[in-house]
């Protein structure tokens, strides 16, 4: 039997170790996919912390827009809702004092958290990311970028300024003893309201825009007709010292003849009937100056008053009976804010441009808007004081619709939260329109943002180099403006909590600021009113679509070129380019069309309120531009 020869070795010997190391150091082949990590995301409601959908496993690089679309798909609601998202930082984490307590998701969780050089220290890919979801307004207000209009006329510093609820009118009060109503198109005074014998310290619009109240250093209250500039009767006299604030009865409680409350340095609050032009009752429980009065909408109405006697008092507005005494402040209480301030101020007007045709309809619309705010939370109150703190109060329980009938006032009401962080006096506080957030201004040169329902600190906005006097929110709740001693008005980005725009133009301290619809107004010691007016946009006939903010222009199939205009403001058509076919025609938006010529063009104007309308504009021409004023900035297309 033949023997088997041993098989020859045919395999190569293993390469040396240095060859292995060289191969490992070579770059990966081009085009090899790199997959993002997957993370577990739990969507929860910002209101109550309850889950909005089951936890889902998602790619970490999913964009904010994709998260919004996914949440709307998982939601039982038919109409999509815009959301903002944030992740709260762990409570046990050591943070720099004044640093934000949350991370806003602006791009994606991967970009804003996992790959962020600082935020990545608090989270890993194995964590469950609890994403808090806050519904946003369905419309947007573009923040102002400059103060481009100067309204001159007052001979002394501007002490107060206020837009009407729709933004159609502007009223200012000055140390020259007059108030002025301004034409926002021509940027000139339409009426000068003379009658006070001292500084005009406060102006307050009725929610239906039919009346304007002014209070002066002479202790008098005057009521004016905004259309004519004439007073309704003589001054309302009774206070022995100057007026500190004014507030109208909410429209949903009394649409035809709302009462007016005035507070004074004399330590009293007086409630006036405009039918009899007499005092219905006087609230005299405070022992020092009453600095602020607010009229809430609970039950048949409640009055909230803040005083230098260190207390906040709650009153039954129907009979003037005291209900609660809130006593936790250690110094003067100088400012108050309600989470329902915005809907009480604007009454039946909203961003859709609805216009009530009767007092009954106005009352119904105002009540619907007020009730919508209170669906998830009661009427809340924030008080600010010279003791550097703020308190969040809930005088009435959730779901309460009637004022307590207790015979004696109670002092057992405790604050929901004590808001600390400011280093000097709190000068002003304001809730966002939806009541979810609150902003406070202080003499320590900062603005602080708080959660409106819990009082939890969110962030500090720094940029002023002097005391901050006032803050105001945009109608969509996405922006804040502030003014102060450093002669500037500043707009803030609430995604990054950074300064967005510095609106310079004033030459001295800025005492007041207001933000309604798309317009910001400010006034101060330099005796001028500055306004960031509606921005303009341009379009060419034949374009297929156009929009900025709430204002849009869309072609309509018609015999002649026509466009549908949606939004507030006016359009100017140059005559050399376009030949008008018809006047602006209301298209279900409650607008009144009118036309007039001037400045080389034909102007269509409609009185629809600054929250929006639908107007059909017919025009004929081969070319040219249409200039529109409304929400948003300047765009060309």
TrEMBL record:
<dbReference type="InterPro" id="IPR001680">
    <property type="entry name" value="WD40_rpt"/>
</dbReference>
<keyword id="KW-0539">Nucleus</keyword>
<dbReference type="GO" id="GO:0005730">
    <property type="term" value="C:nucleolus"/>
</dbReference>
<dbReference type="InterPro" id="IPR015943">
    <property type="entry name" value="WD40/YVTN_repeat-like_dom_sf"/>
</dbReference>
<feature type="repeat" description="WD">
    <location>
        <begin position="236"/>
        <end position="282"/>
    </location>
</feature>
<dbReference type="InterPro" id="IPR012972">
    <property type="entry name" value="NLE"/>
</dbReference>
<dbReference type="Pfam" id="PF08154">
    <property type="entry name" value="NLE"/>
</dbReference>
<feature type="repeat" description="WD">
    <location>
        <begin position="193"/>
        <end position="234"/>
    </location>
</feature>
<dbReference type="Pfam" id="PF00400">
    <property type="entry name" value="WD40"/>
</dbReference>
<feature type="region of interest" description="Disordered">
    <location>
        <begin position="1"/>
        <end position="20"/>
    </location>
</feature>
<keyword id="KW-0853">WD repeat</keyword>
<feature type="repeat" description="WD">
    <location>
        <begin position="283"/>
        <end position="325"/>
    </location>
</feature>
<feature type="repeat" description="WD">
    <location>
        <begin position="461"/>
        <end position="502"/>
    </location>
</feature>
<dbReference type="InterPro" id="IPR019775">
    <property type="entry name" value="WD40_repeat_CS"/>
</dbReference>
<feature type="domain" description="NLE">
    <location>
        <begin position="39"/>
        <end position="87"/>
    </location>
</feature>
<dbReference type="InterPro" id="IPR020472">
    <property type="entry name" value="WD40_PAC1"/>
</dbReference>
<keyword id="KW-0677">Repeat</keyword>
<dbReference type="InterPro" id="IPR036322">
    <property type="entry name" value="WD40_repeat_dom_sf"/>
</dbReference>
<feature type="repeat" description="WD">
    <location>
        <begin position="151"/>
        <end position="192"/>
    </location>
</feature>
<feature type="compositionally biased region" description="Basic residues">
    <location>
        <begin position="9"/>
        <end position="20"/>
    </location>
</feature>
<dbReference type="GO" id="GO:0000027">
    <property type="term" value="P:ribosomal large subunit assembly"/>
</dbReference>
<protein>
    <submittedName>
        <fullName>WD40-repeat-containing domain protein</fullName>
    </submittedName>
</protein>
<feature type="repeat" description="WD">
    <location>
        <begin position="419"/>
        <end position="460"/>
    </location>
</feature>
């Amino acid at each position: 039997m033949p023997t088997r020869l041993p098989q020859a070795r045919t395999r190569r010997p293993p390469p040396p170790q240095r060859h292995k190391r060289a191969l490992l150091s070579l770059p990966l082949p081009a085009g090899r996919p790199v997959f993002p990590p997957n993370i577990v995301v739990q969507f929860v409601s910002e209101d109550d912390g309850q889950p909005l959908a089951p936890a889902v496993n998602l790619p970490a690089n999913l964009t904010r827009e994709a998260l919004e679309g996914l949440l709307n798909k998982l939601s039982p609601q038919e109409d999509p809702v815009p959301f903002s998202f944030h992740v709260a930082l762990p409570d046990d984490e050591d943070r720099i004092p004044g640093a934000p307590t949350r991370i806003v998701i602006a791009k994606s969780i991967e970009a804003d958290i996992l790959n962020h050089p600082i935020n990545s220290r608090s989270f890993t890919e194995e964590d469950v990311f609890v994403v808090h979801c806050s519904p946003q307004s369905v419309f947007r207000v573009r923040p102002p970028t400059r103060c481009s209009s100067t309204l001159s006329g007052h001979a002394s510093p501007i002490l107060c300024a206020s837009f009407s609820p729709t933004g159609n009118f502007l009223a200012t009060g000055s140390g020259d003893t007059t108030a002025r109503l301004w034409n926002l198109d021509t940027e000139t005074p339409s009426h000068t309201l003379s009658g006070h014998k001292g500084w005009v310290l406060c102006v307050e619009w009725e929610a239906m825009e039919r009346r304007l109240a002014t209070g002066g250093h002479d202790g008098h209250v005057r009521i004016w007709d905004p259309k004519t500039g004439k007073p309704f009767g003589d001054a309302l006299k009774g206070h022995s010292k100057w007026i500190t604030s004014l507030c109208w009865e909410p429209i949903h409680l009394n649409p035809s003849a709302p009462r007016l409350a005035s507070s004074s340095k004399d330590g009293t609050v007086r409630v006036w009937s405009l039918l009899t032009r007499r005092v219905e009752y006087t609230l005299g429980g405070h022992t020092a100056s009453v600095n602020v009065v607010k009229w809430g909408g609970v039950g048949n109405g409640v009055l909230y008053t803040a005083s230098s006697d260190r207390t906040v008092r709650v009153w039954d507005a129907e009979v003037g009976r005291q209900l609660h005494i809130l006593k936790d402040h250690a110094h003067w209480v100088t400012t108050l804010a309600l989470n329902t301030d915005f809907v009480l101020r604007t009454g039946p007007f909203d961003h859709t441009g609805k216009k009530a045709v009767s007092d009954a309809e106005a009352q119904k619309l105002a009540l619907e808007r007020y009730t919508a705010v209170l669906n998830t939370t009661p009427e809340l109150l924030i008080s600010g004081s010279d003791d550097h703190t703020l308190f969040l109060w809930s005088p009435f329980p959730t779901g309460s619709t009637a004022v307590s009938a207790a015979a004696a006032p109670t002092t057992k009401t405790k604050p929901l939260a004590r808001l600390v962080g400011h280093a000097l006096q709190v000068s002003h506080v304001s809730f966002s329109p939806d009541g979810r957030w609150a902003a406070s201004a202080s003499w320590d040169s900062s603005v602080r943002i708080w959660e409106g329902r819990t009082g939890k600190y969110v962030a500090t906005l720094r940029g002023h180099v002097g005391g901050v006097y006032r803050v105001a929110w945009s109608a969509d709740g996405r922006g804040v403006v502030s003014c102060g001693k450093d002669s500037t008005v500043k707009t803030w980005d609430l995604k990054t909590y950074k300064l967005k725009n510095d609106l310079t133009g004033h030459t001295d301290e800025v005492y007041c600021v207001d933000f309604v619809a798309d317009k910001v107004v400010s006034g101060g010691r330099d005796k001028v009113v500055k306004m960031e007016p509606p921005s303009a946009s341009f379009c060419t006939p034949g374009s297929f679509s156009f929009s900025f903010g709430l204002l849009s222009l869309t072609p309509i199939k018609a015999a002649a070129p026509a466009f549908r205009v949606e939004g507030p403001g006016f359009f100017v058509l140059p005559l050399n380019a376009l030949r008008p076919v018809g006047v602006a025609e209301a298209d279900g938006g409650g607008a009144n069309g009118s036309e007039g010529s001037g400045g080389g063009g034909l102007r269509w104007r409609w009185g629809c309120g600054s929250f929006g309308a639908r107007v059909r504009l017919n025009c004929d021409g081969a070319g040219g531009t249409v200039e529109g004023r409304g929400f948003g900035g300047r765009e060309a297309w």
